[in-house]
Each structure stands twice: as structure tokens, then as C-alpha cells.
Recover the amino acids of this structure.
């Protein structure tokens, strides 16, 4: 069992306790007057149609009903999510700006950029983890590679000739492939995109030869026989992706790269507002219809306390920081 899997069990267990008491605890913040009294902006640092965008919109509607105010999703894509994350970190900490982001801007970007423009640990306040999903290694449907071993053999036969798509430097789609390059002794060219919908389009057209992708975007095209999935990046098989082998089972032991989405607010947002948001989102993630919708995207709901999310980020930062250092990656 991986450290991430252990952390997921702890988060899920704690979330059950929160959910059980959330209905009683749901109340207006005590520190300031009535909140919210106007619309809340939910920043998504990726384009429309991406998995963070889809999850954000999935949560925004029931959250607006709980808060009795509109929750408006605003996409601010670019730089692997760093632009929108930076924007949210500089917003007024009054509870009217929240952020749905992924692990890249929070975990790996600080190790890759010296001048990021924000410090995750001090400029953003954690609200809750939202969901987790393994990534999927995808190639064009007409690719000669039908397994990871065959893909590696193809890359070795054409050193430097194959390229792959990412949602930006430092993202899990980038570092996952960087790990495979390191472990397999191959060299590929990275092509950054603004989001996974653009990556799968390029894989289908043959403009790029591979990509580590979130399954919510990749699998509809795989199931339509427009692309081919070779492996998943969890250490163990996924119930949501039956029949897909792991990278570990195909000759790369310990290969793990999990995508997760989480909700944040600008640092300094009143604690009672953060608590109310945590309780409301935890309730939403426990709704059967939301669980079904997330499962359709191959995500598992994983609500947490703010502190547990902070601890997860610290653990992931240490783990991926070591990978970045070993691979001598820098984007400055």
C-alpha cells in the first residue's frame, strides 16, 4: 500500500465524522455579518472541459444552493495552472474567492520555479481535498504500441522522435512521463497544452504520440476506439478502470502518479468561513448523485479537514521534490 493510499484512508475516515455532524454545524459565520451576501467566484486555473473545471461545476451548483448565493466558476488557464492559482492567492481574503486546483500548482511548481509569484503554504488556505484519480498512459489508437513495454521499445527505436502532451511543466502529466523516461532510459519531447481536452484531440489526430492523462477525459475516447490506454499509474488496480494494468505490473515497480483536486481560499480568509465551506463541500461530496457523477469521471470523492490537506501537500512535496531533484528539472 502506497503512502498516498494510506493518507487517502485517513482522509476518508475523518471525512465521515465531519459529514455526520455537518448538518448540525452548518451556520452563518460568527466573526463577520451575514456571509455570503453576494456571488462567490470559484477560480479554476484550467480551461472549460478540463477535469478540474468539470468537478468545479459539479460542486458549484449544490454549493450555491447551500449558501443561497451564486457560485460562479471562472476559468483562468495557463502555465500548468500557475496563473489562475496565483490570481486566487492574491484575491481579497473575504470568502468571495475560492480556488479549485490540482496538485501541480501546489506541490511541484514551487520546486520547479524560483519566481512562482505565490507560496502555496502561506498564500493559500486549505479548505478540503475534493477527489483523487489515477492517471492513464494513452497513445493513438493506431499506435503500434499495445503495452508499456512496446511503447518503450518504440521510443528506444526512435530516440528523441516521439513527443507527448502535458498540461504544463511540473504537472503530473509531465513528471509521470519524466519518471518513465528516467526509469526506461528513453527520451521524448514534451508538448505543453492548456488542458487535457486539447491533449486527447492531438493524440487522436496523431500530432503527439502519448500522454499521461486523467481518465475522465481520456476514457470516453478510449472506449470509442479513438485512442488506446496502456496502463494506469496507481500501485494497485482501480475498480473504476477494470482491466487496465498498472505501470508496476508492466515492469516499473513503485511507479505511482495520482491526480487530485482540492479547494483553497486566499490566506487570511476568516476561519469560520473556511469551516463553513469545508462542511458544505463535505456534505456535497457525500451525496450519492455527486459520487456517481465523480465515478463517471473516474474520480473518488476524498473530503478532508484543512489540516489533513496541508499534511498531504507537505508529504507530496517531499516525494515529488526528490523526483524533481533526481531528474535535475528546473523551469526558470
Amino acid at each position: 500500500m502506497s503512502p498516498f493510499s494510506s493518507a487517502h484512508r485517513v482522509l476518508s475516515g475523518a471525512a465521515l465524522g465531519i459529514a455526520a455532524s455537518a448538518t448540525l454545524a452548518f451556520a452563518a459565520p460568527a466573526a463577520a455579518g451575514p456571509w455570503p451576501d453576494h456571488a462567490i467566484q470559484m477560480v479554476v486555473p484550467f480551461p472549460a472541459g478540463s477535469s478540474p473545471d468539470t468537478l468545479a461545476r459539479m460542486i458549484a451548483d449544490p454549493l450555491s444552493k447551500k449558501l443561497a448565493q451564486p457560485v460562479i466558476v471562472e476559468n483562468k488557464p495557463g502555465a500548468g495552472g500557475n496563473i489562475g492559482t496565483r490570481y486566487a492567492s492574491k484575491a481579497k481574503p473575504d470568502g468571495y474567492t475560492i480556488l479549485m486546483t490540482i496538485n501541480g500548482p501546489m506541490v511541484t511548481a514551487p520546486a520547479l520555479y524560483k519566481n512562482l509569484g505565490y507560496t502555496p503554504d502561506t498564500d493559500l488556505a486549505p479548505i478540503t481535498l475534493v477527489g483523487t484519480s489515477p492517471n492513464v498512459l494513452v497513445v493513438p489508437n493506431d499506435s503500434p504500441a499495445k503495452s508499456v513495454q512496446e511503447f518503450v521499445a518504440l521510443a528506444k527505436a526512435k530516440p528523441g522522435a516521439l513527443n507527448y502532451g502535458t498540461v504544463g511543466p511540473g504537472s503530473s502529466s509531465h513528471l509521470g512521463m519524466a519518471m518513465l523516461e528516467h526509469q526506461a532510459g528513453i527520451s521524448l519531447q514534451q508538448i505543453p497544452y492548456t488542458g487535457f481536452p486539447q491533449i486527447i484531440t492531438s493524440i487522436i489526430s496523431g500530432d503527439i504520440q502519448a500522454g499521461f492523462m486523467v481518465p475522465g477525459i481520456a476514457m470516453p475516447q478510449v472506449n470509442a476506439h479513438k485512442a488506446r490506454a496502456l496502463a494506469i499509474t496507481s500501485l494497485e488496480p482501480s475498480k473504476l478502470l477494470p482491466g487496465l494494468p498498472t505501470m508496476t505490473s508492466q515492469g516499473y515497480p513503485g511507479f505511482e502518479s495520482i491526480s487530485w483536486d482540492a479547494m483553497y481560499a486566499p490566506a487570511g480568509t476568516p476561519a469560520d468561513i473556511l469551516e463553513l465551506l469545508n462542511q458544505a463541500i463535505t456534505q456535497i461530496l457525500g451525496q450519492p448523485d455527486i459520487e456517481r457523477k465523480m465515478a463517471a469521471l473516474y474520480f473518488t470523492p476524498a473530503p478532508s479537514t484543512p489540516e489533513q490537506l496541508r499534511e498531504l501537500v507537505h508529504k507530496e512535496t517531499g516525494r515529488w521534490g526528490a523526483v524533481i531533484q533526481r531528474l535535475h528539472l528546473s523551469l526558470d
Q: What stands out?
A: The first helix runs from residue 3 to 25. The longest strand covers residues 124-134. The chain has two domains: 3-132+259-327, 136-250.
